[in-house]
């Protein structure tokens, strides 16, 4: 399946999971390395406790095909179960897109804990934002991975949203690595070091999203 089809399927499955479990946090996007169903490359350990890597090579494409078919089938199945009162007549459907300019820095490659790190801003970048309103609910999507331990950024967006139903999605339309909240930089966490966004970027994006959400509600 094409990459876009994968994202669509993942989003549908994620929404279904949110509806079932009532997660107060965000929805993960196209980040298959966090909990893959199949692994083409894996590690094994023998009786002498020695590690080795096993690679499926070309056979791994079969795993990709199966995964794509499973995701696509589930996406279709979920879409067929959606029912709206009155056939959905009168419900507001609107897509709003915008960008937010934030400070950037050199992305690191953390290999372990450290007590010092240079988070000096080196430039700026535009962060795309997508907001889809469906009646009294909204889906908010951003490219970066809002992967902080407590999902503080996603929770802040939900808390200040004027809509009764708000879902925040990371890594929409691809990914651009981590966007950590301010305290992660003070604590020198993995998310902060593994980011190309400077301190304060997450808060800037969240504030912009809040403004956009209120404009949609007006």
Oligomer: single chain
Q: Quickly count the domains.
A: 2
Summarize the amount of helix as a percent range.
Answer: 25-40%
Number of strands: 6
- Radius of gyration over all CA atoms, rounded: 20 Å
What does this structure look like?
- With 218 residues, this protein is of the alpha+beta class.
- It has 2 domains: 3-30 and 53-82, no CATH class; 93-217, no CATH class.
- The chain is built from 6 helices and 6 strands, in the order αββαβββαβααα.
- It has helices at 3-21, 60-81, 152-159, 182-187, 190-193, 201-217, and strands at 41-45, 51-55, 93-104, 123-134, 137-142, 165-169.
- The two termini are 39 Å apart.
Question: Helices and strands in order, then pairings?
Answer:
Layout: H1 3-21, E1 41-45, E2 51-55, H2 60-81, E3 93-104, E4 123-134, E5 137-142, H3 152-159, E6 165-169, H4 182-187, H5 190-193, H6 201-217
Parallel strand pairs: 5-6
Antiparallel strand pairs: 1-2, 3-4, 4-5
Helix pairs in contact: 1-2, 3-6
């Amino acid at each position: 399946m094409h990459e876009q089809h994968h994202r669509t399927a993942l989003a549908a499955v994620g929404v279904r999971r949110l509806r079932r479990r009532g997660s107060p946090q965000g929805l993960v996007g196209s980040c298959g390395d966090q909990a893959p169903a199949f692994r083409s490359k894996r590690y094994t350990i023998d009786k002498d406790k020695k590690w080795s890597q096993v690679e499926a090579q070309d056979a791994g494409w079969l795993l990709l095909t199966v995964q794509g078919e499973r995701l696509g089938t589930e996406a279709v199945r979920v879409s067929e179960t959606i029912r709206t009162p009155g056939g959905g007549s009168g419900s507001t459907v609107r897509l709003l897109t915008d960008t937010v300019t934030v400070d950037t820095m050199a992305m690191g490659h953390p290999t372990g804990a450290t007590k010092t790190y240079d988070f000096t801003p080196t430039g700026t970048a535009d962060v795309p934002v997508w907001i889809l309103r469906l009646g009294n609910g909204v889906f908010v999507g951003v490219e970066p991975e809002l992967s902080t331990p407590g999902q503080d950024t996603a929770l802040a967006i939900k808390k200040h949203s004027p809509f009764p139903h708000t879902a925040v999605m990371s890594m929409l339309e691809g990914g651009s690595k981590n966007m950590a909240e301010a305290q992660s930089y003070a604590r020198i966490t993995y998310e902060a070091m593994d980011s190309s966004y400077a301190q304060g970027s997450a808060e800037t994006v969240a504030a912009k999203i809040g403004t956009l959400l209120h404009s949609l509600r007006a």
